[in-house]
């Protein structure tokens, strides 16, 4: 384990190049497992507390999250850019908000403030792409490659992706919107529209925003994309990543649908109204007496 995890031989807002003795030890190490465990418990507690929120309250939460994420992004980007310019003499273009996880800054406000089809499309992305992106980055938190656990750089990434997963799951547990296959279709539409901007940008600049160019860091698929690139078929990589997005959106939907179906099936049993589960509650007879 990174000894800095205990000693804290740096300030919380220290820039990555100034943290001596840290070479990414927390990535895949005990601190990351602690983060995942704490996140899981906190997520369950919050969702249990908020599961009965009204639709108006949930919409207010979406508005607050949307505004907060925009301000959070501006704060972190400004903070890191000051150091980037000081040490590297230039702006780090990788901080631009074109990755999948940045889409919550667009989707949450649209879902919270808009109406009609646009609102529905944004909600569906929050219920699919937002959850997928959040979970993937919680499991493979790249910030730990540059910043140790007790640092603003790591805190930002840990908090950001936790909020992504929380936001999407909140819409499920509160039954905020209709759960049908349009969740996949509209969520995927939101992702595809975003890709129309990002894919040309990736190929123009050499970046890998939304992973469309090189599928960087995607287990198994990165190797496939590398093979396509070496064969002169890099233009197929965006199609491969698009297919992966579609499959993952379906995965989230069918897991949620299955859980909902299971809950619907078990609810009457546990209430004693069907099956041989819990004992049925006593009811009054036609004569007004309680039968024995």
What does this structure look like?
This protein has 292 residues and is mainly α. It has one domain (20-266). It contains ten helices and no strands. The protein has helices at residues 4-7, 30-50, 55-88, 104-113, 116-126, 129-139, 152-173, 182-205, 221-230, 237-270. Helix 3 (55-88) packs antiparallel against helix 7, helix 5 (116-126) packs across helix 8 and helix 8 runs antiparallel to helix 10. The longest helix is centred in the N-terminal third of the chain and has 34 residues, at 55-88. The radius of gyration is 23 Å and the shape is globular. The termini are far apart.
Quick overview of this protein structure:
The protein has 292 residues and is mainly alpha-helical.
> Domains counted in the coordinates: how many?
1
State the order of secondary-structure elements, H for helix, E for strand: HHHHHHHHHH
- The share of residues in extended strands comes to under 5%
* Oligomeric state: single chain
Mean of all residue-level pLDDT scores = 89
Percent helix, as a range, is: 55-70%
Structural class: mainly alpha
Instruction: Report the end-to-end length measured between terminal Cα atoms.
Output: 65 Å
Shape category: globular
Largest sheet: none
Count of individual beta strands: 0
Number of helices: 10
Cα gyration radius (Å): 23 Å
Q: Which ranges are low-confidence, i.e. pLDDT below 50, for 5 or more consecutive residues?
A: 274-292
